[in-house]
Amino acid sequence: MDLTITPDNIVYWQWGPINLNATIVFTWLMMIILVGGAWLVTRNLSTGVKISHWQSLLEVVVFAIRNEIRQVANQEASRYLPFIGTLFLFISVSNFLSIVPGYQAPTGSLSTTSALAICVFFAVPVYGIMERGLIGYLKRYIQPSPILLPFHIISEFSRTLALAIRLFGNVMSGSLIAALLLSIAPLFVPVLFEGFGLLIGQIQAYIFAILAMVFIASAARTQQEEEQ
Asked: Is residue 210 in a domain?
């Protein structure tokens, strides 16, 4: 029985200390799928009544993401849409493609989830400074009291760690349990569990994107909005 806990363990090619594992391969595959799919859908956009099914699907997805951002941030969503939308689509499609035989979700690797969490870690001050200015952003670390400065700093790192581990743990555990059921149970049990795993994967993509937006919105909130 072969239980692969993480795609990092699947090595396709190795030369000395350099190796090409499943995480790298399927991460690049995901980027090609997302970029190629975006190009194919948007190359012939129409503003008329008759639009393609793919454009209609894309508009539904973008509208839904924009609406969620607007509700969470209580601000115009256009500034945050590219970053949050990319996070959601990458995680969502990565998890969804786990139904394909031989595919290994990159989100099942702690390296990938850590990289996504680090992107959020740096996006928080970038958006915060853009909205509040450097001084205004740094002031939040000493509010309501300078004594809380170390706790604010610890919070920045701890929530980044929590983002990475939460996504990794849920994706990895789902794959592991499915493999265990496949080895000890009839065919239909793993199939049903795989369907449930797909649902969990989409929920995890949603939760990750929403938490990222909450962190960014908190940093970008102006002093007037905080007082309200």
From this structure: yes
